[in-house]
Specification:
The radius of gyration is 25 Å and the shape is globular. It is built from 10 helices and no strands. It is mainly α and 203 residues long. It folds into 2 domains: 8-127, no CATH class; 154-203, no CATH class.
Length: 203
């Protein structure tokens, strides 16, 4: 059953095909690493993390059901676990407490379930469209109206020689790093490389 498995009866029932999915049950615990990610779980559920998922996706009977997989992926994103392989090095039992189960699934099990969820092309787009329609209707009904927010992260471009522009208003450390990534680029007095400055002047 693996390390940290304590819900033995449910796992046996799942192995025999008698369990649709193990219910998520959060229990009291102390000193759980990365437990702060649970603060965002109510917000994710409110905006539709599990809404319409049962209508568009389906998994065969097993211990880890559809809700468990969706919640786990959301918690992994919040904890900045960038790949399924990185989950292999996380404490299975402690992450089970975050998930509301005894332990998280093995990476191989999670990959198999994701393969089933991604088998049909266009499911994610339909789910996204359904949630977007609900969000628009919800915002239109409020007095504040609908707002769009774009999160832009800007940094100096570190490209090939002759294509990198480092303005004078960048920080010294950024200009020092970028200037050495394109040492052969001649720069104008404004701080831009001469090629791009001439291109800008030509419009």
């Amino acid at each position: 059953m693996g390390y940290g498995a304590t819900r033995s009866l449910e796992r046996v029932a799942a192995a025999m095909g008698e369990l649709e999915a193990a219910p998520i049950v959060f229990e009291a615990a102390r000193d759980i690493p990365q437990g702060g990610v649970l603060l965002a779980l109510p917000v994710l559920l409110a905006v539709g993390l599990l809404r319409h998922s049962a209508e568009l996706y389906a998994l065969p009977k097993g211990f880890y059901g559809l809700s468990s997989v969706f919640v786990l992926l959301a918690l992994m994103a919040l904890a900045r676990i960038g790949s399924l392989e990185q989950l292999r090095y996380a404490a299975a039992g402690e992450w089970g407490n975050l998930l509301g189960l005894d332990r998280v699934p093995e990476v191989r099990t999670l990959r198999e379930k994701l393969k089933l969820l991604c088998a049909e092309v266009g499911q994610a787009a339909r789910w996204n469209a359904a949630l977007t329609k609900e969000w628009i209707v919800q915002h239109e009904s409020e007095s504040s109206g609908l707002a769009f927010y774009i999160d832009g992260h800007v940094r100096v471009y570190h490209g090939a020689s002759g294509s990198s522009c480092v303005p004078r208003w960048t920080t010294g450390s950024m200009r020092w790093t970028a200037s050495r990534s394109s040492t052969s680029t001649k720069r104008s007095i404004t701080g831009w490389c001469r090629r791009c400055a001439e291109r800008y002047c030509r419009g």
